[in-house]
Amino acid sequence: MSFQDLVGSGSACSTGNSAMKFVDHLNKNKFNGFKHPGPREDFNNMVVRPPPPNMADQQLVNEFFEKQKNDAMLDSFKFNEMNNELNNVIPAPPPPPTQLTSTNWANEFSMNNTNFLPAPQLTHEEEKAFENAFNEAIKQHQELEWQNEFIRQENLASGPVLQNDEIKEFEKIYEQHANQLNEDDWTQQFQEVERTLNSESKGKGKEEEYLDWKEEFEKNAYSSIDQLEGDENQDFDDAWEDAQAQAWEKEFEEYESNDDLLTTDPDPITGPLEPYTFETINPYLDNPNAYEEGLKLLETGGSLSTAALAFEAVVQKDPKNSEAWLRLGNIQAENEKERPAIAALQRAVRENPENLEALMSLAISYTNEAMNLEAYSTLDRWIKVQYPQVGKSNTGRTHISHEHIINLFLEAARLGPSKAVHKTPESEALAFDPDVQSGLGVLFFNDFDYDKAVDCFKAALSVRPNDYLLWNRLGATLANSGRCEEASNAYYQALEIKPTFVRCRYNLGIACMNIGCYKEAVEHFLGALSMHIIRYGKDGKGDDAGVNISDSIWETLRRTFVLMERHDLAELANPNTDLSVFENEFEF
Length: 588
Fold this sequence. Notes:
Blueprint: H1 3-7, H2 18-32, H3 55-71, H4 79-85, H5 105-112, H6 124-158, H7 164-182, H8 185-200, H9 206-256, H10 259-263, H11 290-299, H12 304-317, H13 322-334, H14 338-351, H15 356-368, H16 372-386, H17 402-415, H18 425-428, H19 434-446, H20 450-463, H21 468-480, H22 484-497, H23 502-514, H24 518-530, H25 551-563, H26 567-572
Helix pairs in contact: 4-6, 11-12, 12-13, 13-14, 13-15, 14-15, 15-16, 16-17, 17-19, 19-20, 20-21, 21-22, 21-23, 22-23, 23-24, 24-25
């Protein structure tokens, strides 16, 4: 039997470990005496009887005892050498049923094993020495087995064994990682504090330095914690306000330094021009009397879109005709086409800076488009032309403000029309200038002071009761101040004077929409859009609305359909739709 067979391959608890079974058997004999083998209460401690030895094993035993007899007096059993011989040792036979003493153990062993060769007789001292040595050998074997088991577990836990080159590589990587950690911000800050404390505590004892460092650390730490609740919110608010202030200042500087802003001139004479787009189809281009044809259409209540074609033909032949540009601009404004109106009126003013009607119309168009600075600059131009005595102050950009322009118009109102440069015999007899009142109405409207604006427009209407433009401006002011019923009456007055006034019809539709009369509002919008259709064919038919589209009317129409929960109609509300698709449900 080999040593591996004796010890077994499993752990100490394994049932196949012969050495551990033998130790257990020996311990039981020592403390409890031999007992008959049989079932035990604890199944795990059951002893299994081994088979009898053969003759070869008996010879080995005899040789073992002969050697021990010769060396007994010189040296007790050398079990270091015995460990080398254990491969040839077999388990001892089980004891007899009766309890035996250690004195006759050898004799009993020889009697029960008649197949063994005669063994030398041992003295009592030799038996005792043998038993002690054998127990010591077993103990050493257990310790050796535990050590081997521990080493195996330790190796498993610590991972694979590294070679010398691998260890050096690992140490190199670890050192690089440690250096990287030392470069961390927190580490640098901690080292900085440590250096500061060391410099401050230079010359002190180590214990004193430690106490000073500890006191300083606790002071800073606990003071920060104590102040956290009281100061955290305030510090955050202060930081937020500073950040917001810096952001606002930066945004303001960028706004002020904007090249477009600095190069944009609000003055109608020196500022940039809005591009004007001409209609591609115009039957008046070959008409030598296009100007007169246009005036005739306006006087007879003809289509504004058709009249616009006539005046477009005129300015295309004569771009410096200020009056033709003025007529074209007023028509586009009345047709609810504000951008083309501004472009035409700008050219009217550019060709004739003293064209008062063009200046006032342009200022109103600027106001409708929320171009306040341009509106103030244009009104300043108007007051300089009509009342130069009140407009002698510097008209630089810094003086073009709402308050400045209002003061100029109020002073002109106190002077009266007799002091105006361009006047007529009829206007000299008036107590006030209706144009000045109209200008003041626009300024008060732009400042949301609707009550004063209403008074100004009513004053101007008292002098010009048939001015449909003034009626429309009054209606718009009343509508914005929440007086919808009065606004509707003003719009109807304007339409009575000029039924083709598209802007007034559009405004009336807005008034109806604001009070929930959606069907009536839609009919007003569709009626206004139908007036944009240009009928110029030989057969009198046509459905071309031209290139200058009124986006405002189409957008408001879609919004009204949504309010009516008619999303199917809202999808159709675009310039490419034939208006006839709405005729089945609406009258216009």
